[in-house]
Amino acid sequence: MIRAKTGRADPGRPGRYALGAVSGLLAALAGLALAQLAATAVRPEAAPVTAVGGAVVDRTPAALKEWAIRQFGTDDKLALTLGIGAALAAVAIAAGLLAVRHLPAGTALAAAFGALGAVAAISRPEATWKDALPSLSGGLTAAAILYVLVRAARRPHPQSPGAAAPGAVDRRGFGRLAVAALALSAGTAYAARRLGAFGDAGATASRAGLVLPPPAVPAPPVPAGSDLRIPGAARFVTPNRDFYRVDTALVVPRVDADTWRLRVYGDGVSRPLTLDLRELLTRPLVEHDATLTCVSNEVGGPYAGNARWLGVRLADLLREAGVRPPSQGGRADQLVARSVDGMTIGTPVEAVMDGREALLAVGMNGEPLPFRHGFPVRMIVPGLYGYVSACKWLRELRLTTFTAYDAYWVRRSWARRAPVKTQSRIDTPRSFAGVAAGRVAVAGVAWAQHRGIARVEVRVDAGPWREARLGEADGDDTWRQWVWLWEAAAGGHTLEVRATDRTGAVQTGDRAGTVPDGATGWHAVTVRVRG
Ligand SMILES: Nc1nc2c(c(=O)[nH]1)N[C@H]1C(S)=C(S)[C@@H](COP(=O)(O)O)O[C@H]1N2
Ligand SMILES: [Mo]
User: Fold this and answer.
1) Distance from the alpha carbon of residue 393 to the mean position of ligand 1, in angstroms
2) 94 lies in the same domain as 136
3) Mean pLDDT of all residues in the chain?
4) From atom 4 of ligand 1, which residue's Cα is the shortest distance away?
5) Which domain holds residue 72?
6) In a domain, 67, yes or no
7) Are residues 358 and 247 in the same domain?
8) Residues 317 and 400 in one domain
9) Cα(364) to centroid of ligand 1, in Å?
10) pTM for the predicted model, two decimal places
11) pLDDT per residue as tens digits for the range 479-523
């Protein structure tokens, strides 16, 4: 009896909760849009989803990160952003429902969430207190919108006196407010977009206007035979638009070349340097072909690319600053590069000064570095994985020791030193591909930067190794293409590949994961041959 009565007493309740949930989502949208707008005045990294995403990336254990990369590949950033969006939507709905019950508590939850974003934002590298502003103002906006909407949702319908439809809400009144909130969010988001593009205009113009001087030391032309032009195999020179991208940046830093500065300082630096781009470019430029590979690349994976780099010899610049390598009594054995987004990458000083073409690169395949690949200046050190050598959006070079300082990835269970391991990859046929019986071109690439590739072998169904034909070598710092012509018989077959570098070392078949210093094992593909 009593139960029936209470059930009946509040028929408007589910409706109000639904409106509460909608209010929460609309409030979150408005808050995000406003925060985005505020971030254009601070810096893009201070926008709440970006800040939280960055904080998550920095705190993700290596194992989980590897899993995410395996699942989502280079879409891992999109997946992260969608994940944060989903979590935010859940909290927004919760705040909306709570506000229906208890308006102050619901609005407080919305504001508190803004504060959480603010904490994430100021915890980011290179952040100042201003980074808190977008999230805080977003949180307050969300709280205010939530307050207004939920108050409307709780207001009884003027035409429904309590007796007729107790608790019925004024849906029309709520609807008008909801549409207004949505319009406000859309307008704000649009303004944020336009202002964002405006803020990047300086950087975009500085790149468009940058004319790279010709190299004082040009690279010889890429040998004609380097590219075997096998359909399905990676091109010898990777076009910039196809070049893999691996970094922690949720928004690509857009650095204005006109205000860019590089500082060189630290242990054993007798003449600290601060250079702008014009000054850097007065030094002789060297052109050099080198393949860049990522330590996170699984056996057979896609995180390898080959480009013609243009840059200043890092060793010359360090000598100018008075630095000597450890082998000549230098005090520092680690060069820590720091980027504008706070990434730190530690490289052995000995490696950058041992005569290899370690560059402060400004050009990639005949154009200024693309923003994604580190404009205006990045490091390139042949023979070392990117995470210990290839700092993008470079801002600072500090000389120190491996004992005194651990760089970003080292603090996340990756090795301090990581020379590239000899690897080879089958590009064609693809795994699980169906091919017609008869002659099949099995082809791919092999790399052992700074040692060079001497031989590539292929075997079928664990049979004897057969030597593949190599594309012509373009120095020892680039990958080599290879091809092997297979007389394929009908049935299922497994193809495997292994490389031998020019020191005579044969690529190991022992399987190891990417953590801590690069995957090993032979790449295998399984194909179905039609009779
Ligand atoms: N600033 C910055 N530089 C960075 C990284 C990064 O996350 N931030 N990632 C490094 C890693 S792990 C690799 S493999 C290379 C990849 O360079 P690419 O994106 O130009 O291919 O950049 C390196 N330089
Ligand atoms: Mo990497």
Assistant:
1) 9
2) yes
3) 93
4) 391
5) 13-204
6) yes
7) yes
8) yes
9) 14
10) 0.92
11) 999 999 999 999 999 999 999 999 999 999 999 999 999 999 999
